[in-house]
Amino acid sequence: MRIGIVGAGMIGSTVAKLWVDAGHEVRLASRHPNELKPLIERLGTRASSGTPEEAAQFGDVVMLTVPLTAIPELAQELAPLLGGKVVLDTGNAYAQRDRDIARDATLNPEGSAGWAAAQFPKARWVKAFNTVYYKTLAKEANRQGDRVGIPLAGDDRNALEIAAQLVRDAGFEPVIVGGLARGKEFEPGAKVYNTGMSGQDLRKVFTKQPSPGGEVTPSA
């Protein structure tokens, strides 16, 4: 699969390596693509760099892994390019960093993912990879036994299934929590946030919580 990654920070570069190792083609995006040359060389021939627009056009799936403050400008540029595509949103609202936008995103009935998704109305939005520290992702991928769980939330069933497969390919266990509104259950401050819980343990937490946005899928 071809995956565009808009944002080449810790999460983006870490997950890019895991997907490249699994055989996917990845295009990492930056406002200054030439600065990504050392990273691309480390990742190998299945990796390339480009602008955000080029990554959006390249990917069958596109991951946005940028601060919330970048979302409004990116929406103006990328929303037309992401229509119909599965978008994985790793964003979190941090008041100290994102200021007023963090407040607006937190107050959204569907949390920060709902706030972001509303700006890309034709994209198939899935909240993913927002709740596990990048060092944990790098260290614990493909571990033996119970794998680290990656919770997912979205309103498009097929998009969730695609996201779940990409989580497996990266070496983790997908946990489909429910509709996009349930993404609030794994944002900063939630019980499971940044714990590195296994998929099995995550399901125990989520099945005890109300599910206004959809049911957990235990087999995911």
Could you characterize what this model shows?
- The protein has helices spanning 10-21, 37-43, 52-58, 71-78, 95-107, 111-117, 134-140, 157-170, 199-206, and strands at 2-6, 25-29, 47-50, 61-64, 86-89, 124-127, 149-154, 173-178.
- Strand 1 (2-6), helix 1 and strand 2 (25-29) form a beta-alpha-beta unit.
- It is an alpha/beta fold and 220 residues long.
- The protein folds into two domains: 2-127, Rossmann fold; 145-206, no CATH class.
- The two termini are 20 Å apart.
- Strands 3-2-1-4-5-6-7-8 form an eight-stranded mixed beta sheet, sandwiched between helices.
- It is built from nine helices and eight strands.
Instruction: Report the CATH C-level class of the largest domain.
Output: Alpha Beta
Mean pLDDT across all amino acids: 94
Sequence of secondary-structure elements: EHEHEHEHEHHEHEHEH
Strand order in the sheet with the most strands: 3-2-1-4-5-6-7-8
Spatial shape: globular
Number of strands: 8
CATH fold category name of the largest domain = Rossmann fold
Sequence stretches where pLDDT stays below 50 over 5 or more residues: 211-219
Instruction: Report the span from N to C terminus.
Output: 20 Å
The structure class reads alpha/beta
* Count of the separate structural domains: 2
Helical proportion?
A: 25-40%
The largest β sheet comes out as: 8 strands, mixed
- Our estimate of the beta-strand percent is 15-25%
CATH superfamily of the largest domain: NAD(P)-binding Rossmann-like Domain
CATH architecture term of the largest domain: 3-Layer(aba) Sandwich
